[in-house]
């Protein structure tokens, strides 16, 4: 009898544990798991310190809503780390993680990052305690970065002068890339789907003199970052181009559309998409420049 009496408190405790299992788990997560301060590794040399409306740097790595989740992902990517973990503390986090990593939304976040910190592939896991682990493969390796930087420094020394305004420098770089690059029609005609093709990256226009829109945009972004001119890339469903802040205003800059493919193969350098406003851009009705203005807020 005494033995049974001794078991009663244990049975009561077990019953309470079962009844309040969710509350107990939540308490453990909040008071023990979440109490640990999470730190990013030291940022690399390509972290950007620009102020954007859609994404912000954060040092709080427990997401309580989707915007905080977006800011954590942006901070991780912008700092150039390749692996990281953080926590979510809201019900829809798993769905938001799925949306951000499997659809175009993470590509949009990627547009705000220095090209050298852009991801090539991303891998994400999420557990029942709200822990999110993220690992990425980068688009540019150290060898390619060294080669591109060497080329950019050489080009800048040849076409830019100290007495040029930022606008004049942008025009000179725009004209250089367009003059020395052909749109890679062979890639399209072959119906390729190769994310590692040089035409998608800055090395395409700078070394192979061929590019797709991603190559044009990355190359221009690298020059702009060297000049410390705030910028990001805007992604639509089927296109990407640059957005630049000079003279206290934001302007669109699309080298792809200023480098048309001609029937006779002649080389044209246009300036239709050279530092134009959103109003001017929309008047062209290209069908390629429709983008999400809830993301690219400066371009509304």
Structural notes for this entry:
Helix 7 packs antiparallel against helix 10. The radius of gyration is 25 Å and the shape is elongated. The chain has 2 domains: 22-138, no CATH class; 142-299, C8orf32 fold, CATH 3.10.620. The protein is built from 11 helices and 10 strands. The chain is of the alpha+beta class and 300 residues long. The longest helix has 18 residues, at 2-19. The mean pLDDT is 90. The chain has a 4-stranded mixed sheet, covered by helices on one side. A 4-stranded antiparallel sheet has the order 7-8-9-10. The chain has a two-stranded parallel ribbon with strand order 5-6. Strand 3 and strand 4 (131-138) form a beta hairpin.
Described by the principal axes of the CA atoms, the overall outline is elongated
CATH architecture of the largest domain: Roll
Give the integer mean of the pLDDT values.
90
Class by alpha and beta content: alpha+beta
C-alpha end-to-end distance? 78 Å
Q: What is the spatial order of strands in the main beta sheet?
A: 1-2-4-3
